[in-house]
Design brief:
alpha+beta, three-stranded antiparallel beta sheet, 2 helices, about 15% helix, about 20% strand, globular, binds zinc ion
């Protein structure tokens, strides 16, 4: 994902072209490829958290929206 190479001290939104500070973590899974229960985590600013959540929801991916950049999210950026 674009924007994740800046280091974990300054997490930013995962939306392409957005460099706002991340305020939310979206933990999601694609059941077709994540067959071992692994999850992916996207970070989002407040403006884009709804966009990213809907993007995944329309694909019927299980997802969880967490306020802030959780420790769980920090350890699972991909
Ligand atoms: Zn954003």
């Amino acid at each position: 994902m674009i924007g994740l190479g800046r280091g974990l001290d300054e997490p930013v939104c995962s939306r392409a072209g957005c460099s706002e500070p991340a305020e939310w973590s979206i933990v999601w899974r694609n059941p077709r490829i994540h067959t071992d229960g692994r999850t992916k985590t996207w970070l989002a600013c407040t403006e884009h958290v709804g966009y990213l959540r809907d993007f995944l929801a329309t694909r019927d991916f299980p997802l969880e929206v967490l306020a802030g950049v959780s420790d769980r999210a920090k350890g699972d950026l991909a």
